[in-house]
Design brief:
heterodimer, A: alpha+beta, five-stranded mixed β-sheet, 18 helices, 9 strands, 10% strand, globular, B: alpha/beta, four-stranded parallel β-sheet
């Protein structure tokens, strides 16, 4: 039977003593979980090890910890798997001369430790969840019978509903590491669960709130840590991007954090230049060169710009001119795709991969963006008219039927 | 080997030394670059955030242009391009109907993306195509006594599944391996796999620069002589914004940040100036000192003396 060196980080804030590591050798099959090993140590060696757990089958979300530097559920991580991760992203490199592979278990990050492996979820995680109004606000009037919701809408929010609130994504959120007030991946994924639900009456209000919050949707740095951390495939970062897409494109919410302006400045920059022209992006993200918001930023950037000019990093041409122009073909792509009636989003969590035999089926998701609020007769369907040229709606229909085929085939 | 070469935007914009150094290093490694000069920006995740199909179409176009060349594969020199393009390619390759729809957008230009393109960052190409042994054999001036901190950035290491990272291909160790193969010393510090903060520089400057400043400070504490990045956007935040980052974290930083081709070029015998290092905002003094000392044959004094001082 394989042996593992289980290293457990011990800390009792009440004790006044610094944290330290305890080491135990456990002999267990590699297919048993890290939680099994921790409980074995607690039962047989040291009853004072603090760990929170309940269901032991990845449903309750209690046993979130970091194993060799990476967050996850102790109950659904095999010992063999945890030990092998010596060289993965953020994992501790294996130590030379170590007889039994090391599995270092420590409490999750970004949350205060209560004791040993137990963190204070109330202080951070649950507070942030409460921040996003994590319940459905009914549309009025409430229907007499059940609320009929299109199938694709429910499939769409299934991914966020898979969250078991374990806090693994919160643990390793790199934006939260420097900005503890960031609403964070778990709570924002929860927000999408309601923004994506047609029964909810406050899509615009929710999006406005999270766009305007300086620690809201535009505070995410695209680090992908939450995607890798999540044991349930919720892809919190992708949900945050969808919130941005809804806020920026469907509701055109111009927030004070430059989120909307930056996104549009970037897209227009590429539309115009084909390649990113950085010298325009900064001022445009602040509303344009002469915008009062942009002026202090530009002045602040001057010393660096001068150094860059002096050292030949920038030339007056790259700083002030427009060295490249988008080829006509690129311009046509912008016209063509943006002229389509509805945005298409392919969510691989829903559709699966064609070639994989275990693909679960499902269909390509049609976000008839503007049409969605329309279908609900909602006043918020901003810009619905502009984005729906009659001829193009055929196009969307065509894809919808193609999607039907895909569904049949993959199943 | 011949590769379809996608340099990205920033390597020809605010970090021209990246494109320049790649062009100098490629022949030394027998890489023939077929530049995709009509391709457009990968969208850096921002266009996908705005409209997924638009980003996927722009990248499908780049892929199709690459497939039209006789290159063995497509190579990029920007982690952000790698990550954003891998994301688009994942969707395009996963679903025939969707790929057809995107290909329709390209039909006017007579282009078509066929599933299954190989697109590798220069870092991956170094290890997987050229090989560390071959790289080691070409080293003219081993980076002895140069303490280099790897800074991978996000887009090239996460999500691990999409980027094909596993025990067979531990791409999240490649930067470590390359530094070692070039004869340098790898410095371990907290920021190796963290985010430079660049994506939120216009939305939350304080948080963005706090990230950059923290990692630079950690590398400084670990006594790194320089950092190496496979991503020009990381370079913007770690080098160009370093004076601002220093203010945010309230300490002097002065940490040189090299692009990957610059580090490789240095070991292959090119001078810091040839590699465009004099264009950086933070003068790579320690690296230039090292290089001068190596050329003069007094290699173990200069850098060491500076460190003690």
């Amino acid at each position: 039977m394989p042996a593992y060196t289980l290293r457990i980080r011990r800390f009792d804030p009440q004790s006044g003593e610094a944290p330290h590591w305890d080491e135990h050798t456990v002999e267990m099959p590699e297919t048993q979980s890290v939680l099994d090993a921790i409980l074995k140590v607690r039962d047989e060696v040291d009853g004072s090890v603090g760990i929170r757990c309940s269901c032991q089958q990845a449903i309750c979300g209690s046993c979130g910890v970091r194993m060799n530097g990476k967050p996850g559920l102790a109950c659904n991580t095999h010992l063999g798997e945890a030990a092998e991760r010596g060289h993965g992203v953020g994992w501790n490199p294996p130590e030379e001369g170590q007889v039994a592979p090391v599995i270092a278990v420590e409490p999750m990050g970004n949350m205060p430790v209560i004791r040993d492996l137990i963190v204070d979820m109330d202080a951070v995680h649950w507070k942030k969840i409460r921040r996003v109004t994590p319940w459905l606000v009914n549309q009025q009037p409430v229907p007499e019978r059940e609320y009929i919701v299109p199938h694709e809408n429910m499939v769409d929010v299934t991914q966020t509903m898979a969250c078991i609130q374990c806090g693994a994504c919160v643990s390793d959120c790199l934006a939260m590491e420097v900005d503890p007030l960031f609403v964070g991946p778990a709570a924002l994924a929860k927000a999408y669960r309601f923004v994506g639900d047609p029964r909810d009456a406050q899509h615009r209000e929710r999006l406005q709130d999270l766009a305007e919050d300086e620690h809201g949707i535009y505070d995410c740095t695209h680090c992908f840590n939450c995607i890798d951390a999540c044991p349930k495939g919720v892809d919190p970062m992708s949900q945050i991007m969808r919130l941005r897409r809804r806020a920026g494109s469907d509701y055109e919410i111009e927030d004070r954090n430059n989120g909307y302006r930056h996104e549009h400045a970037f897209v227009n920059n590429i539309r115009r230049n084909g390649l990113l022209h950085e010298a325009d992006l900064l001022p445009d993200s602040y509303g344009g060169k002469f915008n009062p918001r942009a002026v202090p930023e530009l002045i602040g950037a001057l010393p660096t710009a001068m150094t860059a000019l002096r050292r030949g990093k920038m030339t007056p041409k790259t700083a002030l001119g427009h060295p490249h122009k988008a080829p006509a073909e690129v311009k046509r792509i912008f016209e063509k795709v943006e002229g389509r009636s509805g945005r298409v989003e392919l969510n691989l969590y829903v559709t699966g991969y064609e070639d994989e035999p275990e693909a679960t089926g499902g269909g390509q998701r049609e976000t008839a963006t503007a049409a969605e609020p329309n279908a609900q007769g909602r006043p918020e369907s901003v810009g619905a008219g502009e984005r729906q040229p009659a001829a193009e709606s055929l196009d969307a229909d065509a894809v919808a039927s193609e999607t039907g085929t895909t569904e049949g085939e993959t199943r | 080997m011949r590769v379809a070469y996608w340099p990205g935007c920033v390597s020809r914009g605010f970090t021209p030394e990246l494109h320049g150094s790649m062009a100098k290093v490629a022949p030394l490694l027998d890489i023939e670059l077929i530049e995709l000069d009509r391709a457009a920006c990968c969208g850096a995740g921002v266009i996908a955030e705005h409209n997924q199909e638009l980003a996927d179409t722009l990248n499908a176009r780049t892929f199709a242009l690459a497939q039209r060349t006789d290159g063995e594969l497509m190579m990029n020199i920007c982690s952000t391009c790698q990550g954003a393009q891998s994301e688009c390619q994942e969707r395009l390759d996963a679903n025939t109907e969707y790929r057809e729809r995107v290909n329709q957008n390209l039909a006017d230009e007579g282009l078509r993306y066929e599933k299954g393109l190989t697109n590798k960052n220069f870092l991956w190409l170094l290890v997987e195509e050229i090989g560390l042994e071959a790289l080691r054999a070409r080293v003219k001036r081993p980076l002895s006594n140069l303490r280099v901190g790897p800074f991978y950035g996000c887009y090239i290491v996460r999500p691990v599944d999409r980027l094909g990272i596993d025990s067979e291909r531990p791409r999240d160790r490649y930067l470590h391996w390359v530094i070692e193969a070039l004869g340098g010393t790898v410095i371990d510090y907290a920021g190796v796999y963290k985010c430079c903060g660049f994506p939120i520089i216009t939305m939350n400057k304080q948080a963005s620069l706090a990230q950059a400043g923290r990692h630079l400070g950690d590398a400084l504490d670990a006594q790194a002589d320089c950092l190496v990045v496979p991503c020009p956007l990381c370079h913007l935040n770690l080098d160009m914004q370093q004076p601002g980052a220093a203010k945010v974290v309230g300490r002097d930083l002065g940490m040189p940040v090299l692009h990957l081709p610059q580090l490789v070029g240095l070991a292959l015998g090119l001078s810091p100036k040839e590699l465009g290092m004099t264009k950086h905002i933070v003068k790579p003094t320690s690296v230039i000192d090292w290089s001068t000392a190596v050329v003069a044959g007094t290699d173990d004094t200069a850098v060491g003396a500076r460190r003690v001082a």
